[in-house]
Amino acid sequence: MENQTLENYRAVYLTAEDLRIAASILYNAYHDDPFFIESLFSSDKAAYEQKLRAAIREELNTLWQQKQALIGLFNGERLVGLACVVTQKIPLGEGRYWHWRLKMLLGTGWQSTQALIKKESSIIELLPNHHCGILQFIALVSNERHKGLGHRLVQAVVSWCDEQPDVEGIGVFVTQESHTQLFTQHDFFSLGELNIGSIDGQLLFYAGQQHA
Predict the structure, then answer these.
(1) Burial of 138 (0-12, 13-18, 19+ CB in 10 A)
(2) Residue among 50, 64, 127 at smallest CA distance from 100
(3) Are 74 and 80 in contact (CB under 8 A)?
(4) What's the confidence (pLDDT) of residue 145?
(5) Sheet holding 199-207, edge to edge
(6) Under DSSP, is residue 76 helix (H, G, I), strand (E, B) or coil?
(7) How far is CA 34 from CA 22, 75, 81, 102, 175, in A?
(8) CA-based Rg of the chain, rounded to a whole angstrom?
(9) HSE (side-chain half, CA atoms, 13 Å) at 111
(10) How buried is 143 (Cβ within 10 angstroms: 0-12 exposed, 13-18 middle, 19+ buried)?
(11) How far is residue 199's CA from residue 34's CA, in Å, rounded to a whole number?
(12) Mean pLDDT throughout 170-184?
């Protein structure tokens, strides 16, 4: 895609009116994600899809309510991608609020909720300190892929991080080589291998410029 065309895309914070479309984009992007399949799938595809919708909806709403960074990529007025960053200013992992646990439990079940908590806890353990964020979600609509927009989204996340005086970096759990290549082109580096359930991956980390 030519730079002139890329300039038609802008990265801005999501509004409450964007959350429904954002949830749909995330659902389609993460439908075949190995972690979610292992954590939410039992034997019924319809039940899995219902759980996935519930998990994404609850997490997105929680991030919005707790004023975390929800960065949308727009082509004109159309939302075509988003990235969601959560910081440790709010309780994560085993420290998750009881009302989040209850809603997630009702939407996905006990084992799935525990798997989500364990994933977060495993990531936090590898992060350098409590002043680092986690890239919870990053996604594009299917017909906007392979245009260089993934780089645009990651750059928006990096720029956001650099502007936060109290955020020292961002970690992201990756399981695919193509995703590793994308993030490393934006100065992410590996903090080590990470095994979550039977899913093998690594935790990549970007150190904010203010703290590099």
Answers:
(1) buried
(2) 64
(3) yes
(4) 79
(5) 9-13, 69-75, 78-87, 132-140, 169-174, 199-207, 189-196
(6) coil
(7) 21, 29, 20, 24, 8
(8) 16
(9) 9
(10) exposed
(11) 7
(12) 93
Place of tokens 């065309």: 5
Q: How do 78-87 and 169-174 pair as beta strands?
A: unpaired
Phi and psi at 118, nearest 5°, equal -65, -40
Closest C-alpha among 95, 78, 77 to residue 86: 95
| Angle made by CA atoms 98, 57, 18, in degrees to the nearest 5 | 125
Report d(CA 97, CA 92) in Å as an integer.
8
Q: Which tokens hold the place of 120?
A: 């977060």
In the 8-state DSSP scheme, what is residue 44?
Answer: -
Tally the residues of the chain: 212
The token duo for 134 is 């986690």
Distances (CA, A) of 21 to 26, 29, 57, 80: 9, 12, 11, 9
CA dist 124 and 106 (Å) reads 25
Are the CB atoms for 167 and 128 separated by under 8 Å?
no
Q: To which residue do tokens 């892929």 refer?
A: 145
Phi and psi angles of residue 27, each rounded to the nearest 5 degrees, phi first = -60, -50
Residue 75 CA to residue 81 CA, distance in Å, equals 9
Q: Is 4's pLDDT higher than 50? A: no
Is pLDDT above 50 for 57?
Answer: yes
